[in-house]
């Protein structure tokens, strides 16, 4: 029989007779046009990438290891013992295959190239502190990575990312960091309680003590707090700021060497004297956690944390330090596409990718990033320190972003990227350090098709109105604004709210424009989300930046700004600034300046199409120590 080597539905033919002749044979009939032909694949070693969910990722397998690398496989539910004899840094990969459940509680000195998790890996102390260093930890769909500490123990976990990008196999820079492709990523440290600690007295330059109110009682010797920049009178509106004043960021750290607690206050002693004054009433951010995920100072490239697709994404009570690679420069991403001359499977999910442009600033390599996640994410109680673009990002994902301390995210501390995000952003403390382009979003919006946003220097930046933004607080110095909403419909109006657990059923499966059309008067901040109880005591150009809020004719309310307290430490700037928006209701809002003879404008309107900006007041609305109540060209 012929054809028996084929699988599934292939034809089989019986040979009934064989004849040998030297006479040409006439073709009596052609084969049927629907006859199947065998699919011939190219050499699979020529493939470079596999597609998962929304993006292409490098192939990671034993037969793909660079020359000189070794691939170690966990067996018997144990970390591979033979890896400990491996001495060459960045050349060993540990694979946890399906069916293996491994607990790592060591502190070896190996710098692993990769750790690939298809089974289960738990990194957790047993009788001592744990440390692990790798270039990339990759959690595949169905795999599980748990990084845990015990509330009853003082033992800690430190995961260091130490590696170098290889653009020949990873041109889009997906690797280096912790990457979960539909895996279960669960990092949970010990709860530290209150993370925003109020200064009871002004700290003066040269002092080594900080007096905090009693809510700081959970601090311990060796913990670290961050004190925000509280200098006043900076001319942020000057065209050449900060160069014209030789500006120096005055954010600084205090590592606690002693604690003297009383009934009313706690006096802590820092290991080193402080360099700057820090005003009473400002807040220190508590940033020590029992789990630290950090880019090693020896790493060639910074790490990032990304989850996409199914699985689980919970990051709680973790310190994430020096993560993120995307900067506030103009986004310039690598462009690549499948080689049309090669084929590796009929589903098209494996390809050889060909680069047509190597970018210099790859988008979406942020410190902590939910990227089109299909699960309800949790970012709670973390300390996210020093990112060149964004601190934590929900991109077309539902994430609870709560009780985090975010310090020194140059672009924005919290980024809701697509407008489809519905998870709450609540009780976060964001300390700006003056980073960012200092430019607004309009400058790059059209030319970058809405993909290069929130680069200016913000605390919380939102592309839409679906997420509740509640009781957050910002201090320090922000290049543009502590709070911003940019709700222009271009490039996002057709995006669909996904069916993710916890999402309001009234939103699921609908585009942003469909949601707006179903509401009388259109979509407002208070329709499903809300902007309530947020505050800022900081240096900024604008306190609340509101752009492109639509309204209907004879609108009486518009979007509601409720319970906001905005205090500007700068010489100039604006409390609220609007662009192409006609009406907002202010309910229990305070806008105030700090320094005498400032030139602050409380409410500024920039172009609402020859209208007069309406701002009806409800409750106690105050404008204190500002030069101008209303300004602009409306």
What does this structure look like?
With 634 residues, the chain is mostly beta strands. It has 3 helices and 50 strands. The radius of gyration is 28 Å and the shape is globular. The relative contact order is 0.08. Residues 1-9 have low confidence and may be disordered.
Low confidence ranges: 1-9
- Alpha-carbon distance between the two ends: 85 Å
Count helical runs: 3
Percent strand equals 35-45%
Largest sheet: 26 strands, parallel
* Assembly category: single chain
Cα-based radius of gyration, to the nearest Å: 28 Å
Number of strands: 50
Shape: globular
Structural class: mainly beta
Percent of residues in helices comes to under 10%
Overall pLDDT: 93
Describe what is shown at a glance.
The chain is mainly β and 634 residues long.
Topology summary:
Layout: E1 49-52, E2 55-58, E3 70-73, E4 92-96, E5 101-104, E6 111-117, E7 120-123, E8 130-140, E9 144-148, E10 157-161, E11 177-181, E12 184-188, E13 196-198, E14 209-213, E15 224-227, E16 252-261, E17 265-270, E18 283-286, E19 291-295, E20 304-309, E21 312-316, E22 318-321, E23 335-338, E24 350-351, E25 353-357, E26 368-373, E27 377-380, E28 383-387, E29 390-395, E30 399-402, E31 405-409, E32 412-416, E33 425-426, E34 429-433, H1 442-445, E35 458-462, E36 469-470, E37 473-477, E38 481-486, H2 512-517, H3 525-528, E39 531-532, E40 535-539, E41 542-547, E42 559-562, E43 565-568, E44 574-579, E45 584-587, E46 590-593, E47 601-606, E48 617-618, E49 622-624, E50 628-632
Parallel strand pairs: 3-4, 4-6, 5-7, 6-8, 7-9, 8-10, 8-11, 9-12, 10-19, 11-20, 12-21, 19-22, 20-26, 21-27, 22-28, 26-29, 27-30, 28-31, 29-32, 30-33, 31-34, 32-35, 33-36, 34-37, 35-38, 36-39, 37-40, 38-41, 39-42, 40-43, 41-44, 42-45, 43-46, 44-47, 45-48, 46-49, 47-50
Antiparallel strand pairs: 1-2, 1-24, 13-18, 14-17, 15-16, 15-18, 16-17, 23-25
């Amino acid at each position: 029989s012929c054809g028996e080597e084929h699988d599934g539905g292939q034809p089989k033919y019986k040979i009934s007779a064989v004849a040998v002749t030297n006479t040409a044979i006439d073709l009596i009939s052609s084969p049927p046009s629907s006859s199947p032909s065998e699919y011939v694949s190219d050499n699979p070693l020529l493939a470079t990438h596999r597609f998962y969910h929304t993006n292409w990722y490098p192939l990671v397998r034993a037969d793909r290891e660079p020359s000189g690398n070794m691939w170690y496989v966990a067996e018997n539910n144990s970390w591979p013992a033979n890896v400990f004899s491996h001495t060459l840094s960045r050349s060993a990969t540990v694979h946890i295959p399906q069916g293996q459940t491994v607990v790592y509680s060591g502190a070896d000195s190996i710098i692993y190239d990769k750790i690939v998790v298809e089974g289960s890996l738990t990194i957790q102390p047993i009788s001592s502190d744990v440390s692990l260093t790798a270039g990339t930890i990759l959690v595949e769909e169905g795999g599980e990575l748990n990084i845990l500490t015990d509330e009853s123990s003082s033992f800690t976990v430190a995961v260091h990312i130490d590696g170098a990008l290889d653009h020949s196999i990873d041109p889009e820079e997906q690797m280096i960091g912790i990457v979960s492709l539909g895996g279960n990523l669960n990092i949970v440290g010990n709860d530290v309680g209150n993370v925003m600690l109020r200064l009871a007295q002004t700290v003066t330059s040269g002092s080594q003590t900080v007096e905090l109110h009693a809510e700081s009682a959970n601090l311990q010797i060796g913990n670290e707090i961050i004190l925000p920049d509280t200098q006043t009178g900076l001319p942020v509106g000057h065209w050449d700021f900060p160069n014209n004043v030789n500006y120096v960021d005055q954010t600084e750290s205090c590592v606690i060497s002693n604690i003297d607690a009383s009934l009313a206050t706690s006096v802590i002693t820092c290991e080193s004297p402080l360099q700057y004054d820090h005003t009473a009433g400002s807040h220190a951010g508590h940033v020590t956690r029992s789990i630290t995920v950090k880019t090693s100072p020896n790493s060639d490239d910074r790490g990032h944390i990304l989850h996409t697709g199914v699985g689980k994404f919970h990051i709680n009570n973790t310190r994430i330090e020096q993560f993120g690679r995307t900067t506030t420069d103009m986004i310039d991403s690598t462009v690549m596409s499948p080689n049309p001359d090669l084929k590796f499977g009929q589903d098209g999910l494996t390809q050889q990718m060909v680069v047509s442009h190597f970018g210099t600033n790859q988008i979406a390599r942020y410190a902590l990033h939910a990227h089109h996640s299909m699960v309800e994410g949790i970012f709670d109680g973390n300390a996210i320190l020093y990112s060149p673009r964004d601190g934590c990002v929900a991109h077309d994902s539902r994430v609870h972003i709560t009780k985090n301390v975010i310090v020194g995210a140059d672009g924005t501390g919290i980024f809701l990227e697509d407008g489809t995000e519905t998870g709450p952003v609540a009780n976060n403390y964001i300390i700006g350090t003056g980073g960012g382009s200092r430019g607004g979003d309009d400058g790059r919006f059209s030319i970058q098709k809405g993909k290069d946003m929130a680069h200016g220097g913000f605390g919380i930046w939102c592309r839409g109105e679906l997420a509740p933004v509640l009781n957050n607080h910002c201090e320090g110095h922000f290049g543009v604004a502590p709070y911003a909403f940019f709700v222009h419909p271009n490039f996002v109006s057709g995006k669909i709210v996904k069916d993710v657990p916890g999402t309001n059923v009234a939103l699921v499966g609908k585009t942003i424009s469909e949601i707006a059309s179903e509401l009388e008067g259109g979509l407002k901040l208070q329709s499903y989300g809300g902007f309530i109880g947020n505050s800022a005591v900081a240096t900024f150009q604008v306190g609340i930046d509101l752009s492109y809020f639509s309204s209907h004719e004879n609108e009486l309310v518009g979007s509601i700004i409720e319970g906001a307290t905005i205090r500007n430490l700068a010489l100039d700037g604006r409390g609220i600034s609007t662009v192409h928006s006609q009406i907002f209701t202010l309910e229990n809002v305070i806008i105030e300046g700090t320094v005498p003879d400032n030139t602050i404008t409380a409410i500024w309107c920039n172009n609402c199409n020859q209208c007069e900006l309406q701002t009806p007041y409800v409750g106690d609305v105050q404008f204190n120590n500002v030069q101008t109540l209303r300004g602009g060209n409306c």
